[in-house]
Amino acid sequence: MLEEFTDKQAQWEERSKDGKWYVVHTYSGHENKVKANIEKMVENRGYIDDIFQVLVPMENYIDSKGGTNEFKERKLFPGYVFVKMVVNDVTWFLVRNTRGVTGFVGPGTKPVPLRDDEVTKFGIREPRVGTLEVNVGDRIRVCEGPFQDFTGEVNSVNHEKNKLNAYLSIFGRETLVELDFDNIEIF
Question: Which of the residues 75, 124, 138, 143 has the least number of beta carbons within 10 Å of its own beta carbon?
């Protein structure tokens, strides 16, 4: 059974190389709903081999109000969702007719894929294949994002979501922060 799962995952990874990133215009404020709706339709209708990833690019920032520093998140491109997919009549129709979508970015009704340099410029990264061997208590260094170059200690690990919680020393205080496996290195 494990071999069957590995074969399917390898086939999916090979097929995802054929996918390109497209930008979908949405109603402002509906980006996360559109992302969830597309992901749900892909799962329910079985198009997991044609639509690979849906992304709402976010950035973390520090908001200083009233003498306190608060970590917040905001959308990098309000009104837009990025979709990695193989475009055919069915996938185009599925994404285009998702509630909250106003259309693909491109001339007329033909979506135009992002070039590789644009994908890199927008900070879109492919998820790390496989899992990172990280355990509670490991020392890590953040190599990307707003906490870049901070070091800390792992508090908890979620291998299914490829995320961990770590205590980082920020402004002289130990602060618990959630990080993606892609953003850290173990030392």
Answer: 143
